[in-house]
Amino acid sequence: MPRLRKIYLIPALLLLLFGISAIVFFKLDLGPNFIRSFAKETQKSTEDFLNEGKAIFRYDTFGSEEFWGQTLRLHEAIKGSQLGGVGPGLSPRTALTLGLKVDSEALPSSLVKQLKKGKVNLDDPATTVALLKNDAVVGVKGFFNSEGQLTSVGIQCALCHSTVDDSLAPGIGRRLDGWANRDLNVGAIIALAPNLQPFADLLQVDVETVREVLLAWGPGKFDALLVLDGKGFRPDGKTAAVLIPPAFGLTGVNLSTWTGFGSMTYWNAFVANLEMHGKGRFLDVRLNDPEQFPVAARAGLWNVKVEPDLISPKLPALHFYQLSLQAPKAPAGSFDQRAAARGERIFNGKARCSNCHVPPMFTEPGFNMHKPEEIGIDSFQADRSPERMYRTAPLRGLWTHQKGGFYHDGRFATLLDVVNHYNKVFKLNLSEQEKKDLVEYLKSI
Ligand code: HEC
Ligand code: HEC
Fold it and tell me: What is the pLDDT of residues 26-49, one digit of tens each?
């Protein structure tokens, strides 16, 4: 069959050629030199990636200035009428009261000296503008024209997920990346904006209602789901906002957020697009559900495509940096070591906490979600998410976010309240001493 043979000849020859070149390729390029340079490249790209991600986490606005500045005109409320904006302006004193933090390392040394001497006018909005010019307000970036006037502001991840160590003064110090800012009153800050109409239009309510919802959030809370379902309040009349969680200690944790919306990279894209109003792309068909997510379905928030995409190219490095953010160790003296050691045994034994909070992630490997009744609470917040469940909170670094309480809405003011809740729901029969030991352990994680 000569014809058939001819047909096979060409692929056979190609295969041979490929085989030979593969051998040559492996011989030439995959020897020890290749391996060494590959390892070096990997090492270098690890460092570059980490630095890139850190810069994104701290300083990138993802183009959000178009929303917060140009559209809501928040910068005008910051500078005040004296500087060409509107109203009294935002003094540094008020900014600090609203929980905004100042990065002392971004301040010129002359200003640091004056601050130490108490010679900086903390009641003048011009000082706030000067701080913005120095890129010293954590999580907020000012944009300036050639005359030095503030023309816009954008926001950064660090706004909610960073705080400072207060080393210079309360609210002024070195950055602590990944820590939840439980002082930050996001709602009150947004409510300062001269133009809240875009929120009113999106939610199909009036501006007064928007303001009422925002002002109900209070310190340390934010409601990322408002723009999906338009729910401002729970049935009991309390705000529907949840506590800002830390963005550290999440390595190995499967689902992110209190209600497990998705992976960390999923949520990063979600927040940058839908909450920060950066420019980019986001897709989640689960949100195209007029019953559960009427606002998202109506406004097409489940499929966002804004050009130019200033978010997607940054997601890989951002994720990499987040994974490097380990939960900080509890300082010696902040808990009773002996009691904590006893508490650890109770956590893993009698109290069965580790059934769900599996060390070292303190959440379940796998699908780390539970029905509301499993942990003995109402379903309001769970029902606002695709799985209608609560995610087992990864307990790392609990000691850094005791302000604002515990559980998604801060319903338990103290760790002892949390333990008492479990003691009742799971009928654990813990003695007062065992409860105390458990609390000391929780403070040490
Ligand atoms: C305005 C405040 C705010 C900003 C800005 C913000 N976040 Fe968040 N973040 C929150 C809140 C509140 C939650 C909890 C949401 C929920 O569970 O409904 C959250 C949750 C998270 C989580 C999940 C944490 C966990 O325990 O699983 C990660 C990760 C995260 N944010 C990363 C980011 C990144 C990255 C950015 C910037 C792209 C960012 N956030 C910007 C407030 C904010
Ligand atoms: C059935 C699984 C399960 C068990 C068992 C369990 N937890 Fe939890 N835990 C959760 C879930 C889910 C949440 C999140 C609740 C929420 O989002 O409101 C949580 C939240 C917490 C929080 C709040 C974290 C924060 O950031 O506010 C603490 C503290 C805690 N658990 C401690 C414990 C202790 C101590 C035990 C043992 C007595 C225990 N848990 C047993 C599932 C569990």
Answer: 555 677 787 888 888 887 788 999
Question: What's the length of the chain?
Answer: 445
Kindly give, in sequence order, each residue whose CB lies less than 8 Å from that of residue 183, ignoring residues fewer than 6 positions away.
99, 101, 163, 171, 219, 220, 403
Answer whether 347's CB lies under 8 Å from 353's CB.
yes
C-alpha to C-alpha distances, 178 to 3, 251, 321, 444, nearest whole angstrom: 69, 13, 10, 18
Compute the C-alpha angle 145/146/150, nearest 5°.
30
Residue 433 binned pLDDT confidence (cut-offs 50, 70, 90): very high
Q: How far apart are CA 333 and CA 443, in angstroms?
A: 11
Give which of 57, 95, 91 is closest to 189, Cα–Cα: 95
Q: Which ligand is nearest to the CA of 139?
A: 1
C-beta separation of 258 from 370 below 8 A: no
**Residue 42: what pLDDT?**
80
| Buried-exposed string 301-318: b where 16+ CB fall within 10 A, e elsewhere | bbebebeebbbeebbebb
CA 244–ligand 1 middle distance (angstroms): 7
Ligand 2, from 418, 427, 435, 443: best to mutate by most atoms within 8 Å of Cβ?
A: 418
- Residues 6+ positions from 86 with CB-CB distance below 8 Å: 73, 76, 77, 80, 194
Q: pLDDT of 359-398, one tens digit each?
A: 999 999 999 999 999 999 999 999 999 999 999 999 999 9
